[in-house]
Amino acid sequence: MFRRLAQIRRRRDAWLAVLAITAAAVVLAMAMTALATTELPADRQVRTVTIAAVVTSVIGVVFFYWFVDSIRAMGKKNDAANRLAGTDDLTGLHNRRAFLASAERELARAERQSGELALLIVDLDHFKRVNDTHGHSVGDSALVAVANVLALSVRVDVDIVGRLGGEEFAVLLPGCDAPTALQAAERIRVAIEALRVAAPGGEVAMTASIGCAAIAGGGLAAVQQAADDALYAAKRGGRNQVVAAGAWQDRPELREPAKRLAREPEEREPLKRSA
Q: Could you tell me the pTM of the whole model?
């Protein structure tokens, strides 16, 4: 609906600008026609033409400024609407669609420039217990607190943080190789483990499992799958840990599902490519 209204507004502004310019041209044409059919002294003709030209110019400048200002305001509104469309309502981070779109662009840039790129997938452990025990309002507060931790743990205007859904987040690290990304992931894990969220009757503590994958060809889907597999390995290994893509294959305890995970499966939405 807002997009439709914006289109109507743009068309209306364009027509009003055309009408304004046409009106100014008509004023000047009428003045010139009047001078051509009226016998006036030369000095009065010059004065009349000057006045008509000034009036026409003023009308044109005023309406042109108004038109440009309207277009600029509309552009700001469209930018704000686009930001809202790509923002998670609860946490203020990129939503899934916006994050994956940004990831596609960064991955394409890294491949063009033969650069490095890493992806972290962060999933809170046993988060259902927080909602079941303390209620969804506390759960929402916990998600906002985690989002703040993530935003403060990354490089401003470089790294990209998003909420993929539920208690699952993602962090894109342009220019980072696997060891650097693992260090960043460990800092995030420690910060989440130290986080405390106020709740009726006490505080809520949380931990997170993190899967880490560096770019290795195959496009975004391959990086996503590698990070997701590493995340599942972290869950199988007992949670509250960081696992790098590929590293878990050499660790039997991460390959074989732990009994505690089998007793309490966590429902997670699979990653999807942006539309």
A: 0.65
